Amino acid sequence: MKPWKHLKRMGLPLAFYFLYFLYFLTSENLYAASLSGLDPLIGKQDAVLVADNQGNILFSKHENTPLIPASTLKILTAVLALSHLGSDYRFHTDFYLDDGNRLIAQGFGDPLLVSESLSAIAKTLANQFRSIHGIILDDTHFAKPLEIPGISDSFEPYDAPNGALCVNFNTVFFQRAGSRFVSAEPKTPLLPMVMSRILNSRMDQGRIVLSNKQGEATLYAGQMLRHFLEKEGITVTGKVETGRADPAQNRLILRYVSEHRLSEVVEKLLEHSNNFIANQLLISVGVKVYGPPGTLEKGVRAAMSDAEKVLKTNGIQIVEGSGISRENRMTVLAMHRVLNAFISHRHLMGFKNGVFYKTGTLDGVRTLAGYIETRPERIYPFAIFINTPGKTADDILMKIRTSLP
């Protein structure tokens, strides 16, 4: 029923009806008029959009201009993962024994397989055997080589490579203690195989990134597993090497299921803006949609298909899922569609001063997207893409917040 018909049936005076009608038409327009003061802050290489939770756009400028989204792209990756895998999905890792009493670890892309996970795995396996003759590592669930645009061969954690069987985000955290190096994480040993990388870094403390060259990252996962098995009193002889599991011939002795639901993985992804997690999820979505082995191309194809068919936008062109590549492009109008799809999961984002948010930073790029919540029933999705070097999104966000009821 239209509001004025409802009022007419109540027999209210004409003047009251007129005032209500005027308010009904202009309340959101008043907010939009206030937001028009944003114009001077928005350059030619910038874009801004503000909407309400009914889908009404209150303000937009350059909304159809494709710009670099930087790490706000992770919101799209989160939407894809939650849509295709489900918020309760848990990654798993399988363990087999072959006829030669060798342990085979088969990875399926768990982004949160860490030292504590391997410790729990070793404790469980200690009930299955007391000795093994070698460890075989099966990382074939993801294709190789797996190259991510924007990822370089540096020591920085944001350049960590992806793979089906990775431990500790393919990074090693260390520090100097006197004349020697030690682990900076109490539950993670500093393995001899990484010492040359640490020395080459010429750092006294920090993180180094393992590479996929000659299987380094996968072999590191195997050596870490060996450490925790031996810590549980299991004798490990023979080699740690890459290979393949054969479920038809090998005996499955353990399926380790992650303690983290996908919603928790997404929360960590957004909290730490972790590029490694983002692309693990994107590749896993590609596997879900198109089957193994996982490739970046399959993940990107799934993302572009959803953009067109589900989000109903052609304002997205991506080459990976973290936002680290400057080849990624998105319009703020497309981000608006993404935010609408993510609104029920907004509590997984960072929160400060009434704003659920995700930031993005590259050289000369500052982006910000999320939701301003003035009251529980007042939620305003917004996207600010600044591609003008030297500018920030802070002033624009402040102006938006002070313009909303």
What does this protein structure show overall?
The structure is a single chain. The protein has about 400 residues and is an alpha+beta fold. Strands 2-1-16-15-14-13 form a six-stranded antiparallel sheet, with helices on both faces. The protein has a five-stranded mixed sheet with strand order 9-5-4-3-10, with helices on one face. A three-stranded antiparallel sheet has the order 7-6-8, with helices on one face. The longest helix is centred in the first third of the chain and has 22 residues. The chain is elongated. It starts with a helix and ends with a helix. The N terminus is likely disordered.
The CATH class designation of the largest domain is: Alpha Beta
Percent of residues in helices: 25-40%
Determine the mean pLDDT. Answer: 91
List the uncertain runs.
Answer: 1-8, 19-27
Q: How does the helix and strand content classify structurally?
A: alpha+beta
Beta-strand content: 15-25%
| Beta strand count | 16
The rough form would be described as elongated
- Tally of DSSP helical segments: 11
Rounded to an integer in angstroms, the radius of gyration calculated over CA atoms is: 26 Å
Structural domain count: 2
The biggest sheet, with number of strands, parallel, antiparallel or mixed sense and barrel status, is:
6 strands, antiparallel
Within CATH, the superfamily of the largest domain carries the name: DD-peptidase/beta-lactamase superfamily
End-to-end C-alpha gap: 26 Å
With strands numbered from the N-terminus, the spatial order across the biggest sheet is 2-1-16-15-14-13
Query: Which architecture of the largest domain per CATH?
Result: 3-Layer(aba) Sandwich
CATH T-level fold name of the largest domain: Beta-lactamase
Order of helices and strands: HHEEHEEHEEEHEHEEHHHEEHEEEEH
